[in-house]
């Protein structure tokens, strides 16, 4: 919007301009568009008659444009220098969070993933990371530290994304609590896994932990469980803060809200810090210029413009509902997203390897934390917490 310059003046006979406090003088007021107007009176503005003021318009410099949307390739990420900090990952899935940490210079030395199809994808993209494939309930803190060749308190960061189907607003929520039910290619109880993560935190004693879950964890009947988790984290000797972050404000062309816990060990005397939102968003068109309109799981049968971020990509490819997760290249063609297109919307590198069937690849992306989102969280933890720890 152009800056508005409001000039109000009253002329002396000599034509000289004076401030309003001078008798018979004139005044000029510069009112920037960031300030309110003077009082609008019945006969003018700010006690100046309508015949004695005018508007001047001055075109402002255009705002800085956002950089083009681009996720670094896997080869570029592997070439990044190590920032000196080591992370371990639990409930690692296909490795979206791990990739985000690597994008911010972390070394991810150890990871845990129970689902075979996810393990296959993780190994394909993170060959240098130790992958523990056991049920997390059987993993002991001493075993993790032995694999890392560390003592309690040495690890810089422990990450975890406990399965969230029990708390997702897209699922049945409390109807499945306490029950073993289908999850990915198997069946397990998922609403107790946050406490397994906290058990590992207490034994490993990382300097910082980051835990992620769906935004539904802080809504409705799940809020009591959220408060229980938060209390347990604080009781473990950590300063803990939790925020719901939206991936669309952290460089991802997708509206995806996640609950992010960040804990800092009490003896370090530092408070948790979350990333600040970017001043811009990326649209589907920024990531996929050839797509004209689309439907996603969040919007059902409603067609949306691609000049805004996508709705949340779900873990299902929408096979049971042909109206969901559909895109259109033109007014006549309707089709599913290709996996290559889905990688872009989920902020994965174009050369990130996905294994298995179309549905399994879709599930890996739909369950993952977008790497670009986690890179923003990791960079904040690196710069605002770990870098400020006194030796």
Task: Report what the structure shows.
- By secondary structure, the chain is of the alpha/beta class.
- The protein has three domains: 1-64, no CATH class; 74-280 and 369-388, Rossmann fold (3-Layer(aba) Sandwich), CATH 3.40.50; 284-367, no CATH class.
- Helix content is 23%, strand content 19%.
- The chain is built from ten helices and 17 strands.
- It has helices at residues 74-78, 96-103, 116-125, 141-148, 193-204, 223-235, 284-287, 339-345, 358-367, 371-384, and strands spanning 3-8, 44-45, 48-49, 53-58, 86-90, 107-112, 130-132, 157-160, 181-183, 186-188, 208-214, 238-246, 257-265, 293-294, 304-305, 326-328, 335-336.
- The strands form five sheets. The protein has a seven-stranded mixed beta sheet with strand order 7-6-5-8-11-13-12, with helices on both faces.
- A hairpin with a 2-residue loop joins strand 9 (181-183) and strand 10 (186-188).
- Helix 2 (96-103) packs across helix 10 (371-384).
- It is globular and about 80 Å long.
- 39% of the residues are buried.
- Mean pLDDT is 83; it is low at 1-26 and 168-173.
